Amino acid sequence: MKKTIVLLTLCLPLVLFTQCAKKTMMSKTASATTTDAAAEIKGKYSASQIAEGKVIFEGSCGKCHKLRQPAEFKVSAWEGILPRMCKKAKLDAEKAALVRAWVITNAKIG
Ligand code: HEC
């Protein structure tokens, strides 16, 4: 009986600690997503390509609804929205990639 209590006392802080560490790590990953995605794009696309993405975005994405600004959604949300909407806007892969470059580099932080 005593042994069980000692064991529990030893294990409880460990369990609590692991839970906390997990949370900290998860929030770090979440905040890194925006920066990682923006860094990936900045490595792949020039400033003028990103600017071209803005022009395509402004010309194609405000036809069915008012133009939604990149800063309205986080990267994670845009990654779900963009493929659907680029299809709706009938953008080819190249144009869709430029629109993504513009939107992701200007998405809501977080
Ligand atoms: C052919 C019409 C059409 C075009 C073109 C279009 N959209 Fe949409 N969009 C919709 C409709 C319909 C909805 C609402 C239903 C839905 O979410 O599918 C929507 C919803 C959205 C939303 C809200 C999603 C949410 O979950 O709240 C965003 C953001 C958006 N569109 C962005 C874009 C962007 C960026 C483009 C250009 C690449 C674009 N749309 C082009 C029809 C269009």
Features of this protein?
globular; about 110 residues; mainly alpha; binds heme C; about 75% helix
The count of strands amounts to: 0
Sequence stretches where pLDDT stays below 50 over 5 or more residues: 23-32
Ions, cofactors and other ligands present here are: heme C
Distance between the termini: 48 Å
- Overall average residue pLDDT: 83
User: Which oligomerization state do the chains in this entry correspond to?
Assistant: single chain
**So what's the overall shape?**
globular
Kindly summarize this structure in a few lines.
76% of the residues lie in helices and 0% in strands. The protein contains four helices and no strands.
Detailed description of the structure:
By secondary structure, the protein is mainly alpha-helical. It has a domain at 31-105. The chain is built from four helices and no strands. The protein has helices at residues 2-44, 47-60, 75-88, 93-105. Helix 2 (47-60) crosses helix 4 (93-105) and helix 3 (75-88) runs antiparallel to helix 4 (93-105). The protein is globular. The model is unreliable at 23-32 (pLDDT under 50). It binds heme C. Heme C is lined by residues 60-61, 63-65, 68, 81, 84-86, 88-89, 99.
Topology, pairings included?
Elements: H1 2-44, H2 47-60, H3 75-88, H4 93-105
Helix pairs in contact: 2-4, 3-4
